[in-house]
Amino acid sequence: MTATASHEPQRKDASPCGEEDASRYGRHLLSLWGLDPNVCHLNHGGYGATPLSVLGEQRGWQRRMESNPPRFFMNELPGLLRAAATELAAFLGTEPDRLAFVDNATSGASAVLRSLDFAPDDEILTTDHVYNALRNAVRYVASRTGAVLREVNVPLPVREADEIVEAIRAGLTQRTRLIVIDHVTSGSATIFPVEAIAALGRERGIPVLVDGAHAPGLVDLDIDAIGADWYVGNCHKWLCAPKGAGFVAVSRAPAATIHPLAISHAYGQGFTAEFDKTGTRDASAWLAIPAAIRFHAKLGGPRLRQRNRALAATIAGSISQMTGMPATCSPALAPAMAALRLPGDLPATREASARVHDWLYDRHGFETAITTAGGALHLRISVQAYNEAGDFEGLAEAGLAAGRASA
Ligand SMILES: Cc1ncc(COP(=O)(O)O)c(C=O)c1O
C-alpha cells in the first residue's frame, strides 16, 4: 500500500464497518447511481459505475460544448482541461503540469510504451498477474523492436508484499529496460507494493511504468510518493467518473518525455500541450472528474475506501471458510475486491469464465467477475458504497455450485 494521501481530508470519527457505516452505506445508495435494483451488483471493479449527479455534470459540459462548438474548442477547452487536471492532480498527489488526460489506462499505457525506444533483446519485465490488454501492448512493442517480454511468476496465494518485490528483483537482468507493474491486479485482486518496486527500478537505473487502472478511489494514492516514471490510471472505475476518464502522470525526470497515441497540432510543444490536443473529441468525461472527486468525498473519501476494504475482507473470509475456496492474497494485500478460486478444476478459458458468470447471473442475479489468476478461474467480488453484507448472501453456495455445474 502507498502512503495515505495528505491532500484529502481525513476523518477520524466512527470506525469503518461500525453501526454508523452500516446505515450510511448499502443498497439504499443504489438509486444515486441509477443501478438496476433487481441485480446484485458485485463487480464495481469491472467497469465502475457513474452516479446520476456526475452524469448530469457531464451532460452539462456537453450542452455547453454544443451551444457554440468553435468557441468551446478554441477558447474555453484548453483552460477547462487544465482546471480539471489541477483538481485531479491534487486528489492523486501529483502536479498538474505532469498530469494529462487519456481515454483509459489502456491507451495511457500504450502511449508510454510506444514512446519508448527498444533494441533487439532488450527486456521488458512484468509479472504473470499483468492485465492481458497491457501484456498485448508490450507484445506489440516487442514484436516491432525485437525486444522481449519477460514475465516472472508470483505464486498464489501472495502472503507478503516482499514476495512480489523479490520476484521482480530475481527477474532483472543486464538487458532489462523497463518494468511494467500493476498497482492493483485485475485477475488476482491484489495490491502490489509499487513504491518498493519503483525504488528497486531507481536503484538499478530501470524505468518503471505503473498500471493503476483500479487505484484512484480504491486505495489511498499519492502518485509522487510512489516515485515511478509513469503512472497511468482510470477515474471511471472506483472514482466513479464517466467512462473515458483516464490519465497519465509522469515523473520529474527528463526521461518522462512521452507522446500521445494521436500526434496533432501541439507536437513538440511539451507533455500537457500534446496530450490536451489530440484531435476533436468529447472531453466531457474529463471535465466531470472534479464532480466525481466531490461525490467520492461526500461519501467519505478515505473512510469509504476503508469501509469497502474491510467489508470485502469480511465477506471473502467467510466465503473462503464456508467453501474452502482459497483467496489469492492475504487480507493485508487485498483492496475492496477479493478473488477466490472456484472449485471444479475449470479450464481458465474465456468460455468457461462466461459459463460461470452467466450461471451466477441467470440463476441468482449476481453480477460478478470471473477472472483468471495462477492459471485458474476465480470468483472476484467488489465492494462499493452501495453494497452491504446482505448482497453476498447465498454467493458462497452459488459459487460452489457454479464451479461444479460449469466443470
Ligand atoms: C489492471 C488493469 N489494467 C488495465 C485495465 C484496463 O482498463 P481500461 O479498459 O479502462 O483501459 C484494467 C481493467 O479492468 C485493469 O484491471
Q: How do the strands and helices of this protein lay out in sequence?
A:
Blueprint: H1 19-24, H2 30-33, E1 40-41, H3 44-47, H4 52-67, H5 69-92, E2 99-102, H6 105-115, E3 123-127, H7 132-145, E4 148-152, H8 161-171, E5 176-182, H9 194-204, E6 208-212, H10 223-226, E7 230-234, E8 246-250, H11 271-276, H12 284-287, H13 289-298, H14 302-323, E9 337-341, H15 350-364, E10 366-367, E11 369-373, E12 376-382, H16 395-406
Parallel strand pairs: 1-10, 3-4, 3-5, 5-6, 6-7
Antiparallel strand pairs: 2-8, 7-8, 9-12, 11-12
Pyridoxal-5'-phosphate (PLP) binds at residues 104-106, 131, 133-134, 182, 185-186, 211, 213-214, 234.
Radius of gyration: 21 Å
Number of strand segments:
12
Number of helices: 16
By helix and strand content, what is the structural category? alpha/beta
Which superfamily, in CATH terms, is the homologous superfamily of the largest domain? Type I PLP-dependent aspartate aminotransferase-like (Major domain)
Just name the CATH architecture of the largest domain: 3-Layer(aba) Sandwich
Low-confidence stretches: 1-6, 11-16
Strand content: 5-15%
Please name the CATH topology of the largest domain.
Answer: Aspartate Aminotransferase, domain 2
Helicity, as a percent range: 40-55%
- Give the overall form: globular
CATH class of the largest domain: Alpha Beta
Tally of structural domains: 2
- Compressed to H and E, one letter per element, the order equals HHEHHHEHEHEHEHEHEEHHHHEHEEEH
Bound heterogens, unique: pyridoxal-5'-phosphate
* Distance, first to last CA: 36 Å
**Major sheet characteristics:** 7 strands, mixed
